[in-house]
Design goal:
The chain folds into two domains: 194 residues, Elongation Factor Tu (Ef-tu), domain 3, CATH 2.40.30; 137 residues, OB fold (Dihydrolipoamide Acetyltransferase, E2P), CATH 2.40.50.100. Helix content is 30%, strand content 33%. It contains five helices and 23 strands. A hairpin with a 2-residue loop joins strand 20 and strand 21. The longest helix has 36 residues.
């Protein structure tokens, strides 16, 4: 019985050995399964005119700022305007006590009447002495004195008229009006305050807000490079009145109303080595306020034959160097470092690294690898979407 058990064990071991050998042979005979070829979509680059833009930092400024000041000394009786409101040129803002100035005007007018009476008397005497001197009834000296008195009386009248005019002006200055149209800020004095005593007391500030100015700065290095490219014929100049100016708000969105370039300063700031450029934007809703820091995208030239790629096609390595994936004629992927220029909408201008006809991967970048083959899918047709929507 022990011999039978031993034979049985030997048979079982032999069967296990044969089974494992057969299993190994079948596994090695199966062909390896190939990984599926990744699918991508590409964009074939074409030369086209591109605007060369610069994105510059700047600050919003009011085109006109007027500081309302008291031009006469007196006590403020009333603030007429509402703080933070829009005012027109000539609107009444403050009322200074006019009583002293009315009294000064009355006094000046009385002095003018007195001077007129004195001149009338001097004129009659001069006319009388003129007739008498011809008859030798008075001496020439007496006539000269009468004539001099008339001249002095004329001067006194002119002086009195000037005093009346000055008193009338001071009375008018007691009513403080807006020198320009714009938005007025908070009052810097209150009712009952004594203003204009030995100085022109500031009362409020008015700023014109529509249109609004934006001052930006650009380095002389960038401007020099731009001018060299223009002289070499690589770029075409954009006239200042045709330059496209876009304001970028804090949230990154573009201000809906386009601006225009007014001028470029003729002096370089020695502390920053930068030049100031001023642009103007419509501001009908008063969304842009002076003092705010913004970015401005300025079209300064046109590249007649340029290349651009979608922003989603740009990859960056660990050092931040931009690159794209290019598919060659054999459907093989290669990485291509590129030099980027400015942003135009959702695209990057490419300064170097690509050529017309290159097929740049724009979809499926996560599946495409350097040196591997890919399958290029056709781009979706917009017409088919439209037809489907129409149905």
């Amino acid at each position: 019985m022990s011999d039978t058990f031993t034979v049985t064990l030997r048979r079982m071991a032999l069967l296990a050995l044969v089974g494992s050998s057969l299993g190994g042979c079948s596994a090695s005979d199966e062909p390896e399964q190939q990984a599926p070829v990744p699918h991508v979509r590409v964009e074939t680059l074409q030369l086209q005119p591109l605007a060369i833009t610069s994105e510059l930092n700047g600050r919003i400024l009011a085109p006109r700022t007027a500081q309302v000041r008291a031009r006469v000394a007196g006590v403020v009786l009333k603030r007429v305007y509402r703080e933070g409101s829009d005012v027109k040129q000539g609107d009444v803002l403050f009322q200074i006590d006019p009583a002293p100035f009315k009294a000064d005007l009355d006094s000046a007018q009385a002095a003018l009447a007195r001077a007129d009476a004195t001149r009338y008397q001097a004129r009659l005497q001069e006319q009388r002495y003129r007739e008498l001197v011809n008859d030798k009834a008075v001496s020439g000296q007496e006539y000269d004195n009468a004539k001099a008195s008339l001249l002095q009386a004329n001067a006194a009248v002119a002086e009195a008229k000037a005093a009346v005019q000055r008193a009338r002006l001071n009375l008018g200055y007691a009513t403080v009006t807006a020198p320009i149209a714009g938005r007025i800020g908070r009052a810097q004095v209150t009712e009952g305050a004594l203003v204009g005593q030995n100085e022109a007391t500031p009362l409020a500030t008015i700023e014109q807000l529509d249109p609004i100015h934006v001052d930006v700065t650009q380095s002389t290095r960038e401007i020099t490079a731009l001018r060299k490219a223009l002289r070499a014929g690589q770029l075409q100049r954009v006239d200042a009145d045709q330059a496209r100016v876009t304001l970028i708000e804090d949230d990154g969105s573009a201000y809906p109303l386009p601006g225009k370039l007014l001028f470029s300063d003729i002096q370089v700031d020695p502390s920053t080595n930068q030049i100031t450029l001023r642009s103007e934007f419509p501001n009908p809703n008063l969304d842009l306020l002076p003092g705010s820091y913004v970015r401005v995208r300025l079209a300064q030239a046109v590249q007649p034959q340029g290349l651009s790629v979608p922003q989603r096609a740009i990859l960056r390595d660990s050092a931040g160097v931009p690159k794209v994936l290019v598919v060659d004629a054999q459907s093989q992927v290669s990485e291509r470092p590129v030099v980027l220029g400015s942003v135009q909408g959702d695209r990057w201008v490419v300064r170097d690294g690509l050529a017309a006809g290159d097929q740049v991967v724009v979809e499926g970048l996560q599946h495409a690898k350097e040196g591997e083959r890919v399958q290029i899918d056709p781009a979706p047709q917009a017409t088919s979407v439209t037809q489907h929507t129409g149905q």
